[in-house]
Amino acid sequence: MVGLLCAGSSLHAQVTAPTSTNTTNSDYWELMLSPYAYHFDYSPEHKNVYLVGLEKHRSDQWFAGGVLFSNSFGQATGAAYAGYEWDKLFGVSSLYAKLAGGIMYGYVGQYKNKVPLNYNGWSPIVVPAVGWSFTQKDAAQVTLLGNAGLLFSYNRKF
Fold this sequence. Notes:
9% of the residues lie in helices and 50% in strands. By secondary structure, it is mainly beta. An eight-stranded antiparallel beta barrel has the order 1-2-3-4-5-6-7-8.
């Protein structure tokens, strides 16, 4: 019986041990800059998309952030979100993936139907991304913008 209790407590300790693969092992900030978004379907109404964002990353790989950008129709837009990052994707030390969800404001007026579930300019977002860290602080990232396109960004940790 004592052996079973010891084995059980040992197993419990292994199951609940943290499994973070974050190589920095500490919290950090990440700045995102994007000069370009590719649209899957061309429209003469599309404008250049410029984005600046800031994320606070925790050592357990969860993060929260916000972005300000000009949307595809030239409107000032902002979003706040939280998410999770998977480092060393497929065992490749430089490859990572992110998944975030949150709220966005900005598609208003004649463009209010360009994003789903828009209510008075507010809409929920789910944003997946993949990136490649080319140094410990610098990365290039591609973010999927629903069925509309891809956003390309440079990310810098500090």
